[in-house]
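Backbone-to-sequence.
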């Protein structure tokens, strides 16, 4: 059954929906909707069908027939229909602008109902348009048809500038709680905790626990957000120690984005070549390759990989070879990828969560990466994957932006080699942090660069420049709204704390000069958003 998490836009849109044979109550959710043209969809029919399987002969009973009807939610470009079925059956949803012609298929039609909690989502639709839709049941029950009108695009207010509050150090909060490391991509999970990544770290200790281990990357969670306190959850020891090459590729593992959805944690990882691994040469930037995604179904205790998604291990599951990649056709293998962040995890796929209603985010998760560098990259690429399929870790499920209006399928391809940049700024685009700001219906992108480079023997890690861009959509157009120069502090990798993004003054986390060890810790401040 649908929960009451539809949001204002979804509620208003419900009032526009009409089922063939009866009117849908304006703002009543969940709603029981039974088409008069589908008499078998009834409690009596359900009981009769549930007896059609014969356990004594070893024949499994067929999937249950829906009795609660269909609850529908719409945005400007998506239609979500829920049947209440959560078994192995494969209910399908399709919509079109002509009666009887259902040309737009739900992006999750090929999954069992259990994978989507009985929901289906059609994406890439025209705004303020009447659609005729049909739900087809695997039980053999008559199809259910209904009409729905997509909403108008959400109002959007451009971000005009940024300012920073007072900067403070995590290690100054409590002498019993100390950490070192960088790269604080984060998300709030269904258990109410904010989880975050940390690279090249001895860990986040509270009163000396857990035992220190110099991890190439790790997973941490906040045990308190006021005052801030964190502790290491997983040291990923199976990937080797930080600060040294862990394979013949002369690289070490590094994490990127972190995403929370349906109780799972999704982490992006890649292989980095830097001065510590002994193969950087004269590069002014740290090269990255071998982009992958790993998933945890137990809040970080164990993790799988894309070669063996059904096998999870404590301390991580490196691929074989360790430099295998899910994205061989994209420049840099999407190894510097991060997620476009929307709502914290509500415990399900988030199909109609209140801040997932723009730009087909109802149905897709977006990823952004540069052309294969930790720092000082040149361009940014955009990819998307259906929410319900991301846990499968199948490269074929990903589509890459090729230009145009990203609302529509024609702007996307599964051919990785055809990906086109959504932003270009040579030498200035390090791993990005992209956060949707729901109050303004805009996207804020934070990145940084080292203007003097990191080439040995004199890497200029003390000098960084931050750049902030804003956009109405993940695919752009992106507009530069702020540049901040740190000539001696070396502050880098600014990342918004996800569960503060609904505020116009969210918290950002970053690190000081990473070659000055006393400063190699988390710093925080507020980011005041102007509009």
């Amino acid at each position: 059954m649908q929960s009451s998490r539809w949001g204002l836009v979804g509620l208003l849109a419900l009032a526009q929906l009409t089922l063939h044979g009866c009117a849908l109550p304006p703002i009543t959710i969940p709603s029981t909707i039974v088409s008069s043209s589908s008499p078998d969809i009834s409690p009596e029919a359900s009981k009769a069908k549930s007896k059609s399987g014969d356990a004594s002969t070893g024949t499994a009973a067929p999937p249950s027939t829906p009795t609660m009807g269909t609850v529908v939610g719409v945005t400007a470009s998506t239609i979500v229909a829920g049947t209440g079925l959560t078994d192995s059956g494969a209910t399908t949803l399709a919509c079109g602008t002509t009666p009887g012609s259902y040309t737009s298929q739900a992006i999750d039609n090929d999954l069992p109902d259990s994978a989507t909690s009985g929901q289906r989502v059609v994406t890439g639709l025209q705004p303020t348009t009447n659609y005729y839709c049909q739900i087809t049941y695997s039980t053999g029950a008559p199809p259910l048809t209904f009409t729905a009108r997509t909403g108008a695009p959400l109002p959007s207010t451009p971000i005009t500038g940024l300012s920073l509050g007072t900067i403070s150090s995590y290690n100054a909060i409590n002498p019993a709680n100390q950490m070192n490391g960088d790269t604080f991509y984060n998300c709030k999970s269904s258990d109410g905790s904010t989880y975050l990544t940390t690279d090249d770290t001895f860990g986040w200790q509270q009163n000396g626990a857990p035992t220190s281990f110099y991890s190439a990357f790790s997973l941490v969670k906040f045990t308190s957000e006021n005052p801030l306190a964190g502790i290491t959850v997983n040291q990923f020891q199976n990937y080797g120690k930080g600060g040294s090459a862990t394979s013949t590729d002369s690289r070490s593992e590094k994490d990127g984005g972190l995403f929370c959805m349906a109780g799972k944690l999704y982490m992006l990882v890649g292989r980095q070549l830097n001065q510590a691994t002994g193969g950087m040469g004269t590069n002014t930037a740290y090269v990255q390759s071998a982009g992958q995604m790993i998933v945890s179904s137990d809040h970080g205790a164990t993790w799988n990989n894309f070669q063996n998604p059904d096998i999870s291990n404590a301390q991580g599951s490196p691929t074989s070879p360790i430099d295998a990649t899910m994205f061989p056709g994209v420049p840099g293998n999407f190894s510097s990828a991060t997620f476009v962040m929307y709502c914290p995890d509500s415990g399900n796929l988030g199909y109609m969560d209140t801040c997932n209603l723009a730009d087909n985010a109802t149905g897709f998760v977006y990823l952004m990466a540069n052309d294969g560098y930790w720092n000082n990259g040149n361009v940014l690429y955009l990819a998307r994957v259906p929410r319900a399929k991301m846990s499968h870790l199948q490269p074929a499920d990903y589509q890459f932006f090729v230009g145009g209006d990203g609302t529509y399928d024609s702007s996307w391809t599964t051919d990785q080699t055809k990906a086109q940049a959504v932003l270009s700024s040579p030498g200035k685009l390090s791993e990005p942090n992209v956060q949707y700001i729901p109050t303004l219906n805009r996207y804020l992108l934070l990145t940084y660069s080292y203007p003097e480079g990191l080439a040995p023997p004199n890497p200029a890690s003390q000098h960084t420049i931050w750049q902030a861009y804003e956009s109405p959509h993940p695919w752009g157009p992106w507009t530069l709204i702020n540049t901040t120069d740190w000539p001696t502090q070396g502050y880098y990798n600014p990342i918004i704390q996800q569960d503060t993004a609904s505020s116009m003054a969210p918290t950002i986390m970053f690190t000081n000069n990473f070659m000055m060890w006393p400063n190699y810790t988390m710093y925080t401040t507020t980011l005041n958003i102007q509009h």
